[in-house]
Structure formats: C-alpha cells, structure tokens
Design goal:
The protein is of the alpha+beta class and about 100 residues long. It has two helices and four strands. The chain has helices spanning about 1-10, 75-85, and strands at about 25-30, 35, 95, 100-105. Helix 1 runs parallel beside helix 2 (about 75-85). Belongs to the glycosyl hydrolase 13 family. InterPro entries: GH (IPR017853).
Length: about 100
C-alpha cells in the first residue's frame, strides 16, 4: 500500500526496490537470546558468489522462494505506469475522513 501511495504522490523521484527471499531460521543461542541462523546469506548466487539471473514465469512473476520481484507485481507496475503518465502534476481534491482513509485527484 505504501509503495502505491509513493507512486501516486507527486513528489520527488520515486524508487521501487525489489528483493530476494530470505529463509529465516531463528534459533535459541543462549538463555535469553535468539538469532537467525541465516544471519547473512546474500542474494541468490552460484558457488562463486556471482548473483544469479532472475528466472521469470510466463506471467512475469518470479519464483517467490528465490526472488520476490515486487516491481513485477501487477499492482506495482500499473502504478509505475500511472506515475509515468501523471508525472509531477499537482495533487488536487484531497480528502480524509480522519479514520485511516485518504483520497486525492
């Protein structure tokens, strides 16, 4: 939701970041201390630590157990297109009901 709002709001240059899957493995390592066993895995890579290419599915999504590819989510790429068309036009018709809802034109 925040990414869609950022792309709709006419301010600065928006940037959408994508990420990779991080398998969390939190284990107890002391009487009152827990830590993620996978504390640094890095992005998907081969044995030489070269980052592997993203493999796309026919619907342009990625394997969610490797790359997350938020920028390819339909909702996000549609908002990128909206931002490209709207550009930095002034925001108008601000509305809020003071209860976690907003709208603007």
């Amino acid at each position: 939701m925040a990414t869609a709002f950022m792309l709709a709001w006419p301010y600065a240059i928006p940037r959408v970041m994508s990420s990779y899957y991080w398998p969390r493995d939190v284990q107890k390592i002391g009487p009152d201390h827990y830590a993620d066993k996978n504390d640094w895995m890095g992005p998907p890579h081969d044995t030489n630590w070269t980052i592997v290419d993203v493999q796309r599915n026919p619907d342009l999504t990625c394997d969610p157990k490797v790359w997350i590819c938020e920028h390819r989510w339909r909702q996000i790429y549609n908002m990128v297109r909206f931002r490209n068309i709207a550009g930095n036009e002034a925001m108008t018709n601000w509305w809020t009901n003071d209860y976690h809802s907003i709208a603007f034109g």
